[in-house]
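Example record

Each entry pairs one chain with its bound ligand, molybdenum atom.
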Amino acid sequence: MTNRQTKVTSSHWGAFEVDVEGDRLVATRPFSEDPNPSDIPLAVPAAVHHRSRVARPSIRRGWLDNRTRTGRGTDPFVELPWDEALDIAAQEIARIRDTHGNAAIFGGSYGWSSAGRFHHAQSQVHRFLNSIGGYVASFGSYSTGCAQSIMPHVFGVNFLQLLYEHQDGWPVIHDHTETLVMFGGINPKNAQVSMGGITEHETETWFDRFAAKGTYCVNIAPQRGDAPEGCDWMPVRPASDTALMLALAFVLESEGLTDHAFLDRYTTGFARFRPYLMGKSDGLPKDPDWAAPICGVAADDIRTLARRMAKTRTLITVAWSLQRGEHGEQPYWMSAVLATMLGQIGLPGGGVGYGYGAIGGVGKSLIGLRGMTFSQLSNPVKTVIPVARIADMLRHPGQDYDFNGKRGPYPDIRLIYWAGGNPYHHHQDLNALHEAWQKPETIIVNEPWWTATAKRADIVFPATTPYEREDIGRSPLDDYLFHMPRLIPPVGEARDDYAIFCGLAERLGAGETFSEGRDADAWIGALYAEFRDLAAGQGIEVPDLDGLRARNWMRLPIRAEGPNRSFFAPFRDDPEAFPLGTPSGRIEIFSERIDGFGYDDCPGHPVWLPPSEWLGTATPEAPLHLVSPQPGDKLHSQLECALADLPGARPAALLIHPDDALARQIASGDLLRVFNARGACRARAVVSDGITQGVVALPTGAWFGDPDQNIDPDGNPNVLTKDVGTSRLGQGCSAHTALVEVARLDG
Ligand SMILES: Nc1nc2c(c(=O)[nH]1)N[C@H]1C(S)=C(S)[C@@H](COP(=O)(O)OP(=O)(O)OC[C@H]3O[C@@H](n4cnc5c(=O)[nH]c(N)nc54)[C@H](O)[C@@H]3O)O[C@H]1N2
Ligand SMILES: Nc1nc2c(c(=O)[nH]1)N[C@H]1C(S)=C(S)[C@@H](COP(=O)(O)OP(=O)(O)OC[C@H]3O[C@@H](n4cnc5c(=O)[nH]c(N)nc54)[C@H](O)[C@@H]3O)O[C@H]1N2
Ligand SMILES: [Mo]
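Structure tokens for the complex follow.
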């Protein structure tokens, strides 16, 4: 009989117990301290031992034989011994670097990879590329790229800092908020996940407490399920939130409910915005009767909500999804303006907050404790593209583009190195990406699995999963610390990203720069020792590494007590002494700086700007708005290989309103074709009155199928989405901008 042992490990979707027998993970169970554990880890053992693991270093036949670029995704791969494959890859990197320079190497390599402080694939690839002279990097994330550009203009603070350090925690919201207005909802399915780890899943349980206390919670979103049960649902048409927010603002202003004292003291530019709001500048008052047909919410409901917001302690929350669409800058900026008009910014439980529920860590009320960052060294190449503009970059080398007040050319990329992300899952308009993907001479990918991206690379190095290596689990948004034990030996011939990059760096004469003479154990020891000192400096005692190994995990005493840590509180007390980082030191309702950019797609104050594809531009060919939210059963495309094996699981489920289903003779369970001019995929119908009429929802996460099929078999919505920047200012991901048609796929 094999010996069974059980250990706890941590991941982006939380901590869980793992049973190990010999060389295999056999089962997972919830972690004892988690009040509301996620089911996501149930798929881990099947995925780790799945037939789709990359077994050995693999090189595409056509590339190996005569460096062809065609054949990505169709050519067979040749397996090679590690030394030979590393030699070939190092020679190719050297060739590109010596011929075209480091600015011909794209290492943006976006993606979540897996948790663990040291074996973080993105940090590893960036450090490696820096050690050999640098690479073209990327700015921002697919999650919040647009907000990361616009919000510093409005609040004068880095957006991620705003999110993670200056928003009210759940206890403050519970104690003070009377009205919670959730644009895009607060979705417990998304709060299962938090980058780097989330141990006590608490987002959903707070809503039970809000209900018990009588907090009024309204979910303004296309799906009822975007917020916990018990919340009011105000169905809206996607991309119309700015119009709704403007109408709420109009009611405040026309009914004398605006807090002008707040506007005078803490903001700048209301006088420039007001004529637009009231219709003096364009003859179009942004009143509820104007907004109702745009957003699909009755004018009287808008009035009632505005009055309630003015008369109670109100927190406006905005999901990240609202800025992942064309003109995503506008609802974000307008939500801030609406909050200034209510005058509650800086009061506990009032104002505006971003990304509650988007990840489980937002709203956790913790004392800041950082540490354990693996240095990426510095990048001598200064070229940085907005992260979601990768296909444009590949398609248009040398062409100028605008970004947040700057203008410059895209670099000419000859080599792509990707580790820890899956662009053939995450990018919009995959068929167009696939065309752009043919341009570089060489594509190298480190991946544990044969994902669509690995299949479309020239050189694939098999990477270990977190269960095959030792690491430390810790996130500044969580109050636990984990030793993540090596549970099994590497599957196949997989190596850690660190070992792969050590092998390449040595061959490229940068071994010492990359590794500093340390192996993985030495790095983990050094990072942990540094963290231990940092914690001690804050009066928090953690055991030494051997002690942590023995304990496996510990809870850190870093829950914050008392009022929020928001910088808006001191700003509210004394705006002269604590000015914001904007040019005016105040919240900018009108921004001279943005106005100076001269962008018609993002002018000097928030405006209603319809996107190119939404229900207002629906056509007979593409009459339905597609939203593509995050999947509830996994993290993006991770673990998909195991989930897709479950009976009936694929193609993915598409939510459709009963009226839209009836018009197409669709019933729940029917196999569907979802299509537009950009592409097509299959899906399985779920008919539900929990979605706004005219809208369909198909989550991300299905792997992209084979390129010779013109219909993606498993239901990847990114064959349908539009690949366009949010605006010249933000250039963020526009995943939620897409019109489609749906039809039954029988006969
Ligand atoms: N239509 C649409 N598209 C979207 C979105 C949307 O809302 N709608 N959302 C966007 C957003 S917000 C995001 S964040 C992206 C997410 O997109 P990604 O972050 O690219 O998605 P993941 O599936 O998490 O990709 C991580 C990859 O890293 C691999 N990996 C895991 N561990 C390791 C490791 O240790 N080493 C190496 N080398 N690899 C590892 C995994 O196998 C996986 O293939 O998707 C974006 N795309
Ligand atoms: N289980 C799980 N959780 C995750 C992830 C995952 O892959 N799996 N991914 C994580 C990541 S990387 C991110 S970035 C976050 C994303 O967090 P969010 O961006 O907040 O989440 P989404 O699921 O993309 O969208 C939430 C809802 O917004 C609604 N919506 C779409 N467009 C609009 C609009 O124009 N107006 C309004 N009012 N609503 C709209 C849709 O109905 C959708 O269901 O989730 C994180 N959490
Ligand atoms: Mo994201």
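The longest helix spans residues 82-100.
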